[in-house]
Amino acid sequence: MNIDKFWRIVQDVHKSANGDMDDKCKRMTTTIGALAADEATSFAAHFENAMQEAYSWPLWGAAYVIHGGCGDDSFSDFRASLISRGRVQFEAALANPDSLADIDLSEDDWVYEGFSYAVTDGVKLAGAKRDARMIPSSNPAGQEWAEDAVYSLFPRLAAKYG
User: Fold this and answer.
1) What is the distance between the alpha carbons of residues 32 and 119, in angstroms, rounded to a whole number?
2) Model's pTM, two decimal places?
3) How far is the C-alpha of 52 from the C-alpha of 125, rounded, in Å?
4) What are the CA-CA distances from residue 55 to residues 37, 48, 79, 85 (Å)?
5) Tens digit of pLDDT for each residue in 126-138?
6) Which residues pair with 141 in a beta bridge?
7) Crossing angle between the packed helical segments 37-53 and 3-17, to the nearest 10 degrees
8) How far apart, in whole angstroms, are the C-alpha atoms of residue 55 and residue 9?
9) Per-residue pLDDT tens over the stretch 86-119
10) How far is CA 1 from the centre of its chain?
11) Which of 104, 112, 119, 160 is most exposed by smallest CB count within 10 Å?
């Protein structure tokens, strides 16, 4: 599976779920589960790569502002939720995390826990075995921010969520 097919699947599932994260997760599990095992494994690898690509201080700062704080687990859920929205929003957020202010979601939608599990469950349903997972970098990319200054880094998000 190439990256374009990965994002096409994500976008199709996102559109069909009409903003309902529970439905989106069920649909993602079913969609991945219907793939051939090697395709499901490839899908998971693209997902893990996107999770790593989004592991950055700027995006973590945006998540912090949106949720009024954000620990490791919440940031993982945030990145998975962002990926679940499709390539356009994912790439826009990486380029300018403050652009997330343009998306109308509740704070809880941003840290929805289930999307990563939907990918894992779909891979299992497809009969794939994941032996090697990407080991994430121990440090986020980019410039670290101080908690007392993070809101000033993302003025649009701070105005919306702060």
Assistant:
1) 7
2) 0.92
3) 24
4) 27, 11, 8, 17
5) 998 765 455 566 7
6) 56
7) 90
8) 22
9) 999 999 999 999 999 998 876 667 778 889 999 9
10) 19
11) 104
